[in-house]
Amino acid sequence: MAGVMMNRWWLSLLALLGTVVAFGAWMATPTDAPVLASAPELVQQQVQAEQAVQASAPPATGPVNEKPAYVSELEWQVLKGVAAQKANPEQELRRLVANLHFSKQLEQWRQLAGKPDIAQRRALAQALLADIPARVTDAELDDAGARQLQKELLADLYSDPAERVSREQVEAARLPATALQVQP
To answer: For residues 128 and 126, what is the distance between their CA atoms, to the nearest angstrom?
Structure first.
């Protein structure tokens, strides 16, 4: 009987110790630390962010003070973390958010190839064309990549070859003169 009492005493002590350790860990957690959602919630947030990019306006050119609708919570935390490591975090966050917006639109445009929603694909192509010069300025695209993407987008928008060539010249002229060239 004394052995049973001793085992209960040890179990009680272990339970109390576990509670103290758990409480200490809880108290040590910073109150401003972001609470990330569970995996299914993260997937749902990502889907919502991808859907939001379809109808979203162009990314802001000024400071980004809050999470845009097309950015998931996980992406927002990563972007803020990366931007915080740079000399000018506000400018870097704006650049990262704009690049993410462009990348998501480009991905959606490519996914719509051969699908019946031609109007949406064309709207995305127009938005991407408008944003290409900014992506070159921010060194997200080099000159050759920008011109190639312009050709792909214009082929989607204009079926007449003469009109397409004319538009290619107009769009190429919109590229910054200081476009970076990638060296092989």
So the answer is: 5
- In tens digits, what is the pLDDT along the chain, a chain of 184 residues? 444 444 454 444 445 444 544 555 545 545 444 445 555 665 555 555 455 455 455 666 677 888 998 899 999 999 999 999 999 999 999 999 999 999 999 999 999 998 988 899 999 999 999 999 999 998 999 999 999 999 999 999 999 999 999 999 999 999 997 544 443 3
Return all residues near 103 (Cβ < 8 A) that are at least 6 apart: none
Q: Give the DSSP per-residue string, 33-84.
A: S--PPPHHHHHHHHHHHHHHHHHPPPPPSS---S--TTS-HHHHHHHHHHHH
Distance, CA of 174 to CA of 143 (rounded, Å): 11
